[in-house]
Write a structure and sequence with these properties.
Blueprint: H1 7-38, H2 43-52, H3 56-67, H4 72-82, H5 85-97, H6 102-111, H7 114-124, H8 133-161, H9 171-183, H10 187-202, H11 210-234
């Protein structure tokens, strides 16, 4: 009879698999917390966003839009656009979690992030038939969630302690640059980044920060078109 790893073994293996990525998540969480406080959000609102949205890039965007007085509907739209990639992650994971009940699927969906997906898929693609691989994904997600909450709180304390003369406006662009550079690995990515950046710069003075939403949409379209053209070019006639 085959002996598969126990639930706790899978859970803690998932947590350990996430540790190297947490080294990059921790300063990002602190930067978010400090930036949100500096822009005028309360500590409770800042922490609640990390618990409810649980998405670094979209939280930065939401904070900037809130600070700019953008209507709530447009903020929700911007967050949805930034997190659109999670639909692709979910579609990729769906065959592996289809046997789980709804409570498990909702829990794993809430914990699903870029980092959790990357680590979890490595486990799912491993050549064994363990029925407890979802515990690995669960452990990975919990490690990331816990780190994000703690570092957000640390950033809140840091932001509240900084003198008002110390502006953190630079935190947002520097953080996104740090996130962007590693993922520019192909022409579609460069196309998406270039178009989005151009729209954001050209629309700098647009009302209600609509340049951000337009830039997100334009970047997505540019990336998809570039991917399609690349496939057509390499596909046999």
């Amino acid at each position: 009879m085959l002996q598969y790893p126990s639930r706790m073994s899978e859970f803690f293996a998932g947590m350990r698999g996430q540790v190297p990525l947490l080294l990059g998540v921790a300063p990002f969480g602190m930067a978010y917390g400090a930036y949100a406080i500096e822009t005028g959000l309360s500590g409770g609102m800042t922490q609640a966003m990390s618990s409810v949205i649980f998405g670094g890039a979209s939280q930065f965007v939401a904070v900037q839009l809130i600070a700019g007085g953008v209507p709530g509907a447009m903020i929700v739209l911007a967050v949805l656009l930034v997190n659109l990639r999670h639909m692709l992650y979910s579609a990729s994971l769906a065959p592996y979690v289809a046997h789980l009940d709804a409570r498990w699927r909702w829990l794993l969906a809430y914990l699903l992030t870029d980092e959790a997906y990357a680590v979890g898929m490595q486990r799912y693609r491993r050549d064994d038939e363990s029925p407890r691989k979802h515990w690995f994904l669960f452990g990975s997600g919990i490690a990331l969630w816990s780190t994000w909450q703690v570092t957000t709180a640390a950033g809140i304390l840091l932001g509240a302690a900084l003198p008002e003369s110390w502006s953190l406006d630079f935190a947002l662009p520097l953080t996104f640059i740090a996130l962007l550079i590693p993922v520019l690995t192909g022409r579609p990515a460069f196309a998406a980044a270039g178009v989005a950046g151009a729209i954001a710069v050209l629309g700098y003075d647009w009302p209600y920060a609509t340049e951000l939403i337009t830039a997100i949409g334009g970047g997505l379209v540019a990336g998809m078109l570039a991917e399609r053209l690349l496939r057509e070019r390499v596909s046999p006639a």
